[in-house]
Design brief:
With 179 residues, this protein is mostly beta strands. 7% of the residues lie in helices and 59% in strands.
């Protein structure tokens, strides 16, 4: 899916926010609304409309950054079926980055999502609530490369089809490049 003309993609927005913070911008608030219509031609059962609204706010201090995002998406299929059910998703996240010293950051993130498939809930498309949190240490190697050591916990609870519940704990090492 192409980004809407005049809007930044998520990686571009992330780089812009980081650059803005590095250049003295103290806060940024973005309210966005989308209403794309997806037309798949010969696969009419996939045609759908999605309405989304998102509020994002970012605040920067001398050695920290805080971000808060809350939003919702309502997707309606032209042919609402068991395989292509209408859905509503609500989500929120908060991030906190703290620069300990010049090339060393502590990064914290918590996310929440609530997905509802309405009348066509089944064992494949199952209503759930997901909570995720992440803690990481990022060490800069140079201006454009850093390493990150992270721990993430993900808990997804399904209302009716509890066999779909997920409980994950992950440790990861990442090489991050900024271009």
């Amino acid at each position: 899916v192409e980004p809407v003309k005049g809007q930044l993609s998520l990686p571009e927005r992330s780089r812009w926010i980081e650059s803005a913070a590095d250049n003295g911008v103290k806060s940024l608030v973005v309210l966005s609304y989308g209403n794309p219509i997806y037309d798949f031609g010969k696969a009419e059962q996939e045609d759908n409309k999605a309405n989304s609204i998102t509020y994002e706010s970012f605040y920067c201090g001398k050695n920290y950054r805080v971000g808060f995002v809350v939003g919702a998406v309502v997707r309606k299929f032209d042919q609402n079926t068991e395989l292509n059910p209408d859905e509503t998703e609500k989500r929120a996240s908060i991030t906190y980055d703290y620069t300990i010293v010049k090339d060393l950051k502590l990064k914290l993130k918590a996310e929440y999502a609530d997905l509802d498939y309405h009348e066509f809930e089944n064992d494949i498309n199952s209503n759930y609530k997901r909570k995720t949190w992440n803690v990481a240490i990022e060490k800069g190697i140079c201006d454009y490369v850093s390493f990150e050591l992270a721990y993430q916990s993900n808990s997804e609870r399904h209302e009716e089809y509890t066999q779909n519940d997920i409980e994950e704990k992950t440790v990861g090492i990442s090489l991050i490049g900024r271009f």
